[in-house]
Amino acid sequence: MKITKVSPQKNNNSRVNVFVDDIYRFSLDGAEAILKGIKEGKEVSSKDIENLIMDSEYSKARDTAFNILSRKSITSASLTDSLIRKGYDSVVAYEVIGELTELGYIDDESYGIMFLEYCHEKMWGKKKIRYEMKQKGLSDDIIENILQSHNEDDYLADMADLIISKYSACDLGDMKTKAKITRFFASRGFDFSKIDSAINLAKEISGE
Q1: Is 36 exposed, middle or buried (0-12, 13-18, 19+ CB in 10 A)?
Q2: What are the mean pLDDT values of the chain's consecutive 10-residue runs (208 residues total)?
Q3: What Rg do the C-alpha atoms of the chain give, in angstroms?
Q4: CA distance 206 to 187
Q5: Is the pTM of this model over 0.85?
Q6: Cβ distance 152 to 125 under 8 Å?
Q7: Residue 17: beta bridge partners?
Q8: What are phi and psi for residue 113, nearest 5 degrees?
Q9: How far apart are CA 82 and CA 183, in angstroms?
Q10: Rounded Cα gap, residues 65 and 72, in angstroms
Q11: CA 135, CA 137: separation in Å to the nearest integer?
Q12: Residue 21's CB: how many other CB atoms inside 10 A?
């Protein structure tokens, strides 16, 4: 078998389409094609083609991963799932993620620290933070390590201010009002003991 044509892709000049015996077989990054000696007239075996197709799949998956990373921060697990959903072989996806992690393009712990700041801005409690981090694909070890720096007592004042602002027209000592406040903060992942402390602080600040 012989490579009969090597031509740039119309929509991506950095990649070339490779034809073997006048039939399209795979595409490669242009620089990679040069390094592998891909040129018209070269003789190739079935095994060569099989390996080159795998290289093609890998380079396309890597390009896709870089494209996703250029638009947003993402965990290794989420990026792996994205590649697999786009049709890439799972083995290829895991190999790409391994390479990008080793090169420092993916750092789950740094992502988790950044995400924790977002959670603080949203005023989420530890339960919801843990759940959302799990949904993002962070490992249990990374989640627990990051949450060591999260102290809900640091947010009691902010919780109390929000209670006063949101329920200024209500009697904070009323059981129905307290139940509403409790549901509000419980849905954001706060423990009942922290919610009670915030309500008591709000009552103290407002003079009730």
Answers
A1: middle
A2: 87 84 84 83 85 85 93 94 93 94 94 92 92 94 90 86 85 88 93 92 82
A3: 27
A4: 24
A5: no
A6: yes
A7: 7, 27
A8: -65, -45
A9: 35
A10: 11
A11: 5
A12: 10
